[in-house]
Amino acid sequence: MTAPFEALVARHGAAVLRVCRAVLGPDDADDAWSETFLAALGAYPGLPATANTEAWLVTIARRKAIDALRARGRRAVPAGDLPDAPSRIGVPDASDPDLWSAVAALPAKQRHAVAYRYLAGLPYAEIAGIVGGTTDAARRAAADGIRTLRRSYAASDQGHDLDLDLDGRSAR
Amino acid sequence: MSTAPDDTAHLVLLHRRLERRADAEGVLDVAYTTLDTPVGSLLLAATPAGLVRVAYETEDHDRVLDALADRVSPRILRAPARLDAAVRQLEDYFAGRLRAFDLPLDLSLSRGFRLLVQRHLPEIGYGRTETYAEVARVVGNPGAVRAVGSACATNPLPVVVPCHRVLRTDGSLGGYVGGLAAKTALLELESAA
Questions:
Q1: Residues B61, A4: contact at Cβ < 8 Å?
Q2: How far apart are CA B12 and CA A129, in angstroms?
Q3: What confidence tens digit (pLDDT) does each residue in B149-180 have?
Q4: What is the residue range of A100's domain?
Q5: Distance in Å, alpha carbon of A54 to nearest chain B alpha carbon
Q6: CATH of domain B5-94
Q7: C-alpha to C-alpha distance for A150 and A163, rounded to whole angstroms
């Protein structure tokens, strides 16, 4: 039996929003979230009952993010285009814009792997299914991303402690 | 992984936007909301055709939504806008200001004899009652008194389709999907107005 779609929004809405923000930055994340859930609602009756609904939603979110990036006419989000000030509409850790700038500055592959692993909590096998490539490659991309974040984020002038911040929200 | 408090508020806004767009683009098969009433919280669900389900708390709203996902469509969102008219009329009804509901109904959850009975029920006027045997006669099957009972018990639209106005021949209440206290409350409401 397929659960009412409302249950998916309640269960995964926050994680999908975090992924959209990490991949696109806060400005376009809301539109990507809306497009993701609208497309998912339309396709939902055809989804096999055994499917991992979160991985399915993140797959759609990734496609919508790519659409949004194409619409911007760029292939990636340059860090320079991110707002200097934290958004007031509820970016996680809005008090900590440095972390989000550091995430946005990651190469696309690492940024996606980090977002799916640490913001959506997906297993590496699912991440590999979404971004393509092997499970090991997905694990390496996430590890490389975290290593880069440790360097760039710790180097920012406030002297953050990335271990506390990132590992504290590590994958379930 | 926790959600920041400002995210919770933001997700509420995003949800509203999703409700509007899903409805506008024709992918919202079932919209629902809940309403607090003197007989407890009622779940109200509507398809684009009309009100499809009213459910008492005792029926377990989550189970009712699961059943709707199964029998109608899993494209279900909490989307109160589609239920605005139903909510207004139910509030008026419970306040004693409304005697007959005027709402589009989607009767697709009922079939055959049950549907026949449920179609007849709104003809029993406000504040009046019929017996199970009378209903059986009116729908043209005088021997089907028990089947009338099960048609009332499985009424997917209680309160709005007034199965509470059907009593036993001896004048006792008979059963009710929302419990006997709810049936009594509705009959008292209607006899007082």
A1: no
A2: 30
A3: 999 999 999 999 999 999 998 888 888 999 99
A4: 5-167
A5: 15
A6: 3.30.160
A7: 8
Band of residue B132 on the pLDDT scale cut at 50, 70, 90 = very high
Q: Do A2 and B4 touch (CB under 8 A)?
A: no
* Cβ separation B65–A4 shorter than 8 A: yes
Per the structure, the count of domains in chain A is 1
Q: Taking the domain B112-192, which CATH number applies?
A: 1.10.10.10
CA distance A59 to A16: 10
Q: Cβ separation of B65 and A169 shorter than 8 Å?
A: no
ipTM of the complex: 0.91
A89 interfacial to chain B (CB closer than 8 Å): yes
Q: Where are the domains of chain B?
A: 5-94, 112-192
Contact with chain B for residue A39, Cβ under 8 A:
no
Q: Report yes or no on A120 lying in a domain.
A: yes
Supply the residues of B annotated as catalytic.
163
